[in-house]
Design a protein that fits this description.
228 residues; alpha/beta; 8 helices; globular
Length: 228
């Protein structure tokens, strides 16, 4: 039942046109393209989640990249953030391969599910509050369908806040005062353990704010908590 409901939800996500600015942006990017991808057909729609529906670990990102997920139709696929993310997930046993180039490249997630707080690529990677709120219902509906989920890894403060809001909406206890985001931070949210990680963006990885060892450490910790 939950598997069919999850499939239906993802189909609903892909057809969403709730945010006029994001619809216009994602479609304009798909039409204009980047020179390096001029021969490719861009996805240009909201990007669905991916992974193992029975996963115990949920990886929550911010939004698809304009020339990453918005191009390939798969989250964190075809961009530098994804290069870091999937390499780390492979090193820590959560993915069958270290790269994610396109939607049919054989990638399989192992006990992991990847989703995002916002499902469309936003200009400058900055969704507006109304756009964040329009997408929020999808996350609230998605999490209960992932019946084995016990850990949420939030990539960045935006995802951390989305996870806290979702927990409240699902009547899971959230500590007070509000748990503060930082790399490696943890919070008990009822049935979920929330773990924070700096986002694997170029801004963080190029400057050394996030290292491979730091990202691996978060996923190893997530596996440890999921096994408890």
């Amino acid at each position: 039942m939950s598997s069919a409901a999850l499939t239906d939800l993802l189909a609903e996500v892909v057809s969403c046109r709730a945010c006029p600015r994001l619809v216009a942006w994602r479609e304009a990017v798909a039409a204009e393209k980047r020179a390096a991808f001029a021969d490719q057909v861009y996805w240009g729609r909201p990007v669905p989640s991916l992974g193992d529906p029975e996963a115990s670990i949920v990886v929550l990102g911010l939004a698809p990249a304009a020339h990453g997920g918005n191009r390939t139709g798969r989250m964190f696929t075809g961009d530098r953030s994804g290069d870091w993310l999937f390499a780390s997930m492979h090193r820590t046993g959560l993915a069958n391969q270290p790269t994610s180039r396109h939607a049919d490249d054989g990638l399989q997630l192992l006990d992991a599910w990847i989703t995002a707080a916002v499902r469309c690529a936003p200009p400058a990677n900055k969704p507006r509050p109304a756009e964040r709120d329009n997408c929020f219902g999808y996350l609230v509906r998605e999490l209960p369908l992932l019946t084995e989920a016990r850990v949420i890894v939030a990539l960045g403060s935006f995802a951390w806040d989305a996870a806290l809001r979702a927990a409240r909406a699902l009547d899971q206890p959230v500590p007070r005062p509000k748990p503060r985001f930082t790399h490696g931070a943890e919070a008990e949210l009822g049935r979920y353990r929330l773990i924070g990680s700096f986002h694997p963006s170029q801004q963080n990885t190029f400057t050394g704010k996030l290292t491979e060892e730091m990202l691996d450490g978060v996923f190893l910790r997530a596996r440890e908590v999921a096994a408890l």
